[in-house]
Amino acid sequence: MASRLTKYVTENAYINTSVQKGGIPGISGCLEHATMIWEAIQRAKSEKLNLDVIWLDLANAYGSVPHEMIQLALRMYHVPEVIQVMLDDYFSGFRMRFSTNNYTTSWINLEVGIAMGCTIPPILFVMAMEVILKAAEGSAGPANLGGGCSMPPLKAFMDDTTIICSKEDETRRMLTRLDDLMSWCRMEFKPKRSRSLSIRRGKVDEATTFTVAEQQIPTVSQEPVKSLGRWYDSSMKDTRRGAETLELASESLLAINKCGLQGKFKIWCLQFMLIPKLLWPLLVYDICSSTVEAIEAKINKYTRKWLGVPPGLSNVAMYCRKARSVDKLGHCLTEILDME
């Protein structure tokens, strides 16, 4: 049912994938959203534009979505009634009770929350969030990024929602609208876990702040934020991330080298544990080539050591899959023995 429902909403374009990229197969939502948000910040910085970016964190997202909200989404997207009834029966079976040393309560029917261990709730949560996003999208126009480029004012990945606006009044209107909608469906944002970034004429404006749930949202100048696998701070640069990636590579290589494993197993740890861990920051951050070359040099140094090959062995000989160095070496040894 989960795959059929996902296919149904995608083929009928009920989910706006330019805004919501969570739970949609075939889309690298984290990477796409993180790249587009960073590109918007960099364009505002280089073009000296105004831009407000607010990262909103939903409190207990999957545990607080009302079942009635899910039914509303199913009706809005014209899901067949038989499926609606099946899902209603499924969620009506969610019950809980509390026990103490003295007594046990009766069973209580749960009206909120979805079971993340099941395959159907993720797409249902996306549909419920889409109802909220569609109701709020008209509160602000596309963000102006200069050069004829624009971006939708909302970006979402499951419950991670980001507001991107060029005008402060539109930002506040969008934030108020989202806050009202969340209150209407008995959900709420967590101000302490949310962050804001205000750019005025290409520079960070720390004086501009926003509120949600009657509390002020911290700025990235006060506390940097990590959203969809990417860090954002007031520097609007990735210099620190490059240094952290180099430090991670150095410390990890040293830890692998100190372990008591044989060289071939250390190579396995490098290939299947460390390299995948380094690929994400190298993919998502703007890391300069000199830092990447420094990481490569450290990896090559330890690889030669663990393989037991000479330090002067070229990278081509060490990594080329088509090279047959072992066969050639064996052939040379055979010739030497024949000469003797």
UniProtKB/TrEMBL annotation:
Keyword set, alphabetical order: Nucleotidyltransferase, RNA-directed DNA polymerase, Transferase
PROSITE patterns xrefs: RT_POL
Residues of the signal peptide: none
Pfam family, one: RVT_1
Stretches that traverse the bilayer: none
Domain Reverse transcriptase residue range list: 1-236
Taxonomy, superkingdom: Eukaryota
UniProt GO molecular function: RNA-directed DNA polymerase activity
PANTHER family (alphabetical): REVERSE TRANSCRIPTASES (PTHR19446)
Protein name (record): Reverse transcriptase
